[in-house]
Design goal:
GO cellular component, one term (chain B): neuron projection
Oligomer: heterodimer
Domain DEP (chain B): 32-107
Shape of chain B: elongated
Strand content of chain A: 35-45%
Structural class of chain B: mainly alpha
Helix content of chain B: 40-55%
Low-confidence stretches of chain A: 1-38
GO biological process, one term (chain B): G protein-coupled receptor signaling pathway
Low-confidence stretches of chain B: 1-13, 454-471
Pfam families (chain B): DEP, G-gamma, RGS, RGS_DHEX
CATH class of the largest domain in chain B: Mainly Alpha
CATH topology of the largest domain in chain A: Methylamine Dehydrogenase, Chain H
Protein name (chain B): Regulator of G protein signaling 11
């Protein structure tokens, strides 16, 4: 094909007479293919030999092991007849068996049950407010319980509290880090929590004194070993639930900053979480890059249920208003509904023309509509019961990163990488 | 027996499902039978083979996916932006125009999913070629890049210039049509990989997500054993038939249909549409007379009643008449402990014991002996959830007994009868006159004032202003 491409590629691999443009600090030619794996060279933390080292994490602590020690470590805990391969196979077989069990009680599809339900008519939703003021991508937003205020966070570290009804900005904080991917409004309306690449979740009490610097009263609550992807207050201002890129979720006491409970079970970054609106209020669901959605018991830290039917990262999870099910949006361009009592996936919301992933999902108040914000800048509205798409909303000029329905269901807000937030009704 | 902590290459495709999907669309478009009919397009004086018009693309998308024109144009535009289809006329802007503008498919060699590292050296060669061809007339941002690269990789500059000259010489020997096509292809590739400043960058994906293959969690024996254990437990759990579960969704949606503003509207009007906050004023936390919908909703479930401050207030009044208000007080005290500060837990648990559980307590609650024993045992080392069992018992007691009777009581029925049913406001005669949007009291201010006024909160009532509660 293109001569230029071929010439360059062969030069790169053979590490010929000119210096390799990919690895400026490339050690001698024989080690060229090693440079992807070994970032450091020195004494191994385990056997103390000086060798090329791999940077890995053991129980969330960073360590440097040589490749031999890594293999040895992984095989610890194996019985004489076991190998990692057999364990993995056993796990896979059991998973298949679980899916079979789940399928046994599946006697009808959702859209069949929904046949007797009236179809939805023409759906008209328009942008009623556009909130401009962020200088960079909007990453997350949350509503206040007063149904009109919102907090939003962006890539440049700014967290802004708006009265969305009047479009006035009421408070603004600049975080010391960029990519503030999580923000939440406290139930009392007196504080906001936010975090991102700083691996922490900080709570800012909202002061009405215009001259007061909000950052001064900041309280650092959560500490993770990787970026904070989502946070949420539980029923009061005193506790925060967080999820992080280090693969764990955690429950924190705001006052003392103490870790109350941690939740391990995901094998990759956890990207989202949602608290159950149930009577007993003790569970929450989280979704991650390992394509799994896990339901957790907040008291014991145990994973109660697990669902793995998505084909790619799960970006967003949200409970159905009754608490008996939850929806998830993923990079595989589908949204799915999982029923907790039936213990399985019961609906898939997808269309061939939708190519880009769903970044954020939320239900309308009655649970009949599911709004999904997608990475192709659109918002798709789905009929939850019939499984069809009701409407597609255009307006944003870059990907929609966050979407939440207001507490009384009168409107929903979408935030986008085009620096704006829109209120739709 | 190896663990692949860093797997190269294979993980790339799975990390970008959108690119795989776009490629599926492209392949479908090129299908000889069902795809787009390609023709020779005329570009000034040259004839370019295997091209199609913007219109063709949009029409095909509309047909294939049964979507409307706006959506088809939108999807097509995104495909062009990602560099899978490029325009022949005006190749500098990657935009889909639904007219006779000619477009071509990008060669798979240049697809984003191939993940050739678009290196500085390649870009330098490309710019040098362009520079030579245009005799120094590069566009601003390209000129800046060129100068910067010249400085940065100066030591290989001879090689760069040599390669550029070689490629130009080889290109001269091609037919004009091929030359144009190759130039456009390359240009499209570089527009995607080195977008002009201010233009949209399709490769911007946000902070790196280490997925399963680059995991921070070690996939070792412990992990798999934990998984196996978990799955075994899941196998044993009890499940409900789908027909029952799904039926409940239909019922729930029907029940709440009238209460969903997006489905049935919300009388008097949706504040976001009409700029009139009457709805919020009518449904404020503590109003004299609530709306009918609100009172109806209290009947949907016990949680609905408790969640609404006014509902809880009215329920408390009812319980006072029935002499069983201590149940509600106990439940509230438990909630307070569960969601309160960690530091105050032992003290609060102690108070709860004195008020509700101790024999002869002023507000003694009726719990069965087993639960009482378990609770008292747990209270020796009080933690956040020590009162959970007792709380659950009292909650279900209230739900089955008091709540059921409340819904049948005169108190509730009167409430329902007196409730307001706001009329849907007629659309204003002058629709273009915008109403003044008034700001509301910041909740932070309200609670601050409350805290200032009442330094000590009595146990058994949360921050809701129960003093304002009147029948």
């Amino acid at each position: 094909m293109s001569e230029r491409g071929v010439t360059l590629l062969s030069a790169c691999i053979s590490n010929g007479s000119f210096s390799c443009p990919q690895h400026w600090a490339c050690p001698p030619a024989e080690m060229c293919d090693q440079t992807f794996l070994a970032i450091t060279f020195g004494p191994c933390d385990c056997c103390s030999d000086t060798k090329p080292l791999m940077n890995i994490y053991l129980k969330n602590e960073p360590v440097n092991y040589c490749s031999l020690c890594v293999e040895r470590m992984a095989c610890q805990g194996l019985q004489p007849n076991e190998t990692l391969a057999t364990l993995k196979m056993e796990s896979e077989t059991l998973k298949t068996k679980l899916e079979e069990e789940r399928a046994k009680l599946h006697d009808v599809e959702l859209h069949q049950v929904a046949e007797r339900v009236e179809a939805l008519g023409q759906f008209v939703m328009k942008t009623r407010r556009t909130l401009k003021g962020h200088g960079n991508k909007v990453l997350c937003m949350d509503w206040c319980k007063d149904k009109r205020r919102i907090v939003s966070s962006s890539q440049d570290g700014k967290v802004i509290v708006w009265d969305a009804f009047t479009t006035n900005k009421e408070h603004a904080v600049t975080m010391p880090c960029t990519w503030v991917m999580a923000c939440a409004y406290a139930p009392s309306g007196c504080a906001v929590a936010c975090g991102g690449l700083d691996n922490k979740c900080s709570v800012y009490p909202l002061s009405l004194d215009k001259n007061e610097n909000l950052a001064a009263k900041k309280k650092s609550v959560a500490m993770h070993t990787n970026y904070l992807s989502a946070c949420s207050f539980t029923n009061s201002d005193m506790q925060i639930l967080t999820s992080s890129g280090d693969g764990t979720c955690a429950l924190w006491d705001v006052e003392s900053g103490q870790l109350l409970q941690s939740f391990h079970g995901h094998s990759a970054d956890v990207l989202c979480l949602d608290l159950a609106p149930s009577e007993t209020g003790n569970t929450f669901v989280s979704g991650g890059c390992d394509k799994k959605a896990n339901v957790w018991d907040m008291r014991s830290g145990q994973c109660i249920q697990s669902f793995e039917t998505h084909e790619s990262d799960i970006n967003s999870v949200r409970y159905y208003p009754s608490g008996d099910a939850f929806a998830s949006g993923s990079d595989d361009a589908t949204c799915r509904l999982y029923d907790l009592r039936a213990d399985r996936e019961v609906a898939i919301y997808s269309k061939e023309s939708i190519i880009f992933g769903a970044s954020s999902v939320d239900f309308s108040l009655s649970g009949r509509l599911l709004f999904g914000g997608y990475n192709d800048y659109t918002i798709n509205v789905w009929d939850v019961l019939k499984g069809t798409r009701v409407s597609i909303l255009f307006g944003h000029e870059n990907r929609v990163s966050t979407l939440r329905v207001s507490p009384d269901g009168t409107a929903f807000c979408s935030g986008s990488w085009d620096h704006t937030l829109r209120i739709w009704a | 027996m190896t663990i692949n902590i860093f797997i190269q290459g294979n993980s790339c495709k799975s990390q970008m499902p959108r690119l795989t999907k776009i490629e599926q669309v492209i392949v479908a478009m090129q299908d000889p039978d069902m795809g787009i009919k390609m023709k020779n397009q005329r570009l000034l004086i040259t004839v370019i083979p295997h091209a199609m018009t913007g219109n063709d693309i949009v029409e095909w998308l509309i047909q294939k996916y049964s979507i409307m024109e706006e959506e088809a144009l939108h999807v097509g535009n995104l495909i062009v932006k990602h560099g899978y289809i490029y325009p022949l006329k005006d190749p500098r802007t990657l935009v889909l125009r639904p007219d006779e503008t000619p477009y071509r498919f990008q060669t798979p060699y240049f697809w984003s999913s191939q993940q050739w590292p678009a290196s500085e050296l390649d870009y330098a060669i490309y710019l040098t070629k362009k520079n030579i061809r245009k005799q120094g007339q590069l566009i601003d941002y390209e000129k800046d890049s060129y100068n910067m690269l010249h400085k940065r990789i100066n030591h290989t500059w001879d090689f760069v210039v040599m390669q550029a000259k070689e490629q130009l010489r080889a290109a001269k020997q091609r037919r004009k049509a091929d030359r144009i096509v190759l130039e456009c292809q390359e240009q499209a590739y570089w527009l995607v990989n080195r977008p002009p400043p201010g233009a949209f960058n399709v490769q911007d994906q946000g902070p790196e997500r280490r997925n399963r293959h680059n995991s921070r969690v070690q996939l070792n024996a412990d992990y798999y054993k934990g998984e196996i254990e978990h799955i075994r437990k899941s196998l044993g759990r009890s499940r409900v038939k789908s027909s029952i579960c799904l039926e409940s969704f239909v019922k729930f949606s029907e029940q709440y249909l009238n209460h969903d503003p997006m489905m049935q509207g919300c009388p008097p009007s949706n504040p976001w549409i009409t700029d009139d906050t009457a709805l919020w004023t009518l449904n404020a936390d503590m109003v004299e007379t609530p709306t009918k919908l609100r009172v109806e909703r209290w009947g949907f479930g016990f949680t609905e009643l408790l969640r609404d401050p006014l509902g809880r207030c009215k329920f408390r009044e009812y319980l006072e008449k029935e002499f069983s208000v201590e149940n509600l007080c106990f439940w509230e005290a438990c909630e307070n402990i569960r969601h309160g500060e960690s530091a105050t837990i032992p003290q609060k648990v102690d108070e709860v014991y004195k008020q509700f559980l101790a024999p002869g307590a002023s507000k003694w609650i009726n719990v069965d002996s087993k639960t009482m024993e378990k609770t008292l045992q747990g209270m020796k080392s009080p933690h956040r959830f020590v009162l959970d069992d007792a709380q659950m018992h009292i909650y279900f007691l209230m739900k089955k007994d008091s709540y059921a009777r409340y819904l049948k009581s005169d108190l509730y029925k009167n409430m329902l009868a007196r409730a307001i049913e706001p009329q849907e406001t007629k659309k204003s005669v002058f629709p273009f006159v915008r109403r003044q949007r008034h700001s509301s009291r910041n909740p932070a201010l309200f609670t601050q004032a409350l805290e200032d006024n009442s330094k000590t909160k009595s146990l058994g009532s949360l921050a809701s202003p129960t003093a304002a509660c009147s029948s």
